[in-house]
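Exercise 3.2. Students should predict the tertiary structure of the chain below and write it as C-alpha cells, then compare their answer with the key that follows.

Predict this chain's 3D structure.
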Amino acid sequence: MPKYAWFNPSANPSPILGWLDTDNGWPNLPPEDALLLLTDTQWATRDSQAWQVQNRQLTPAPDPSLADLKTAKAAAINASCQAQIFAGFTSSALGNAYTYPAKDRDQSNLAASVLASLLPNLPAGWTTSFWCMNATGAWAYVAHTAVQIQQVGQDGKTAVIAALSKNADLQQQIVNATTATELAAITW
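Answer key:
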C-alpha cells in the first residue's frame, strides 16, 4: 500500500505535517495535492532527520537558526518556570511543613487572605481557612491565624521570586549563547 508525506501545498517549502502509512488504513486521507508519494527508501529513513517538501520533492529540512533555537529554548524555560511555581511551595507556618498550591487562582486567594489578616480591628482569635496538604498527603482547609497566613504568604512569595529569578538568569544565558551547544546546556 502507498505511504505518503502529508504537507501544506500552499507553503513551499512545507514542513511535514504527518507520515501516512495506508497499510494501517486511512479512510479519510488529506487532499491528494497535500500528499507526496514516498519510495520505500524515503519511508524507511523518515525518522533519520527533519524533512520538508519543496517543489513536491522530499528534501532535508534546514537546521533551525540560532534565533529559532533561542526562541524555542526561552519558551521551554518559561514553561519550566511556570510548572515549578504551579507545583506549589512548602511552609512551616503551622508548626509543621505543609504544601500550599500556587496556581494563579491559589496565589490570588492567598493574597486576599493575607490582606484580610492585615485589616484593622480583627476580632480576637481571628483565623482564615486555607487549602494545604499535610505530610501524609491529605489536603484540607486548615485554620490559620493572621501571623500564620502572613508567613505562608511570605513563604509563597519567596518560592515564586526564586523561580522567577532563576528564569531571568537562564533567559539571560539564552540571550548570551552563541552556539546551539551552549543553548542545549541551558536547562531548568
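Discussion points: The beta strands are 3-7, 14-21, 35-37, 51-54, 57-60, 89-91, 98-100, 127-133, 139-145. Residues 153 and 188 are 25 Å apart (CA to CA).
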